[in-house]
Amino acid sequence: MKYKIVVFDLDGTILNTLEDLADSTNYALSVFDMPERTIEEIRHFVGNGIRKLMERAVPQGTPESMIVKVHETFTEHYKKHCADKTRPYDGIKELIENIRNAGVYTAVVSNKADYGVQTLCKDYFPGLFDYAVGEREGIRRKPYPDSVNEVLRQFDVDRTQAVYVGDSEVDVQTAANAGMDVCMVGWGFRDEEFLKDNGAEFVVHSPEEAWEFINK
Fold it and tell me: Which SUPFAM superfamilies match (predicted)?
């Protein structure tokens, strides 16, 4: 196999987190008497971290001080409810197991807050990732390659031997900025047409197709 490590995005790639994200967003909005958002609106708001999700969800012109309060309320709620409706996509666990059985490292790099990444990976994928990291203070989020580069250093793997698996335009950009291959999935929060319009050359439609791409 060409690759020595496979780095996954989390939301929309290995876990369908959309409903829990929407529920916590709308809870936070309702606390401050702001209009709630539809699930499709939330789908297009995610991908750049929770702070950006809040900025997009609140009404235009909302003061910074209020955005901070909405963000804090979201965080408090989501910590308790991040796994209420979240589920792995069908076939994802088997894909990760196949990769590990081939002697390849597995990791997660996400723009989700790090507490969410650690909780969800532990709950849904115990023992299946060698490294997992989310958004942390002082570290630039994707599409900057900082966290991906950190993973490569941890395992002493060259970027030519690594592939990033994701579902959004942010992931396309992240892989490009890191100088590594990318495998885009079509079952997540962006459709194939959108992904190709934003630089994706190839989109897989099932974990089985992803395995064929990785195991080349």
Answer: HAD-like
Q: Running DSSP on this structure, what letter comes out for residue 11?
A: B
Q: Per-residue pLDDT tens for 157-166?
A: 999 999 999 9
Torsional sign, CA 177, 151, 138, 13: positive
Backbone angles phi, psi at 90, to 5 degrees: -55, 130
Domain co-membership, 132 together with 209: yes
Supply the pLDDT for residue 11. Answer: 96
For residues 143 and 168, membership in a common domain is answered with yes
**Can you list the residues of the chain whose pLDDT is less than 50?**
none
DSSP string, 114-156: HHHHHHHHHHHSTT--SEEEEE-TTSPPTTSSHHHHHHHHHHT
Residue 22's CATH number: 1.10.150.240
Please tell me the pTM assigned to this model: 0.93
Peptide bond into 143 cis (omega under 30): yes
| Residues 41, 140 contacting (CB under 8 angstroms) | no
E strands, the chain, are 5-8, 15-16, 87-88, 105-113, 131-135, 162-166, 181-185, 203-204
Do 75 and 101 lie in one domain? The reply is no
Considering its fold, how many domains does the chain have in total?
2
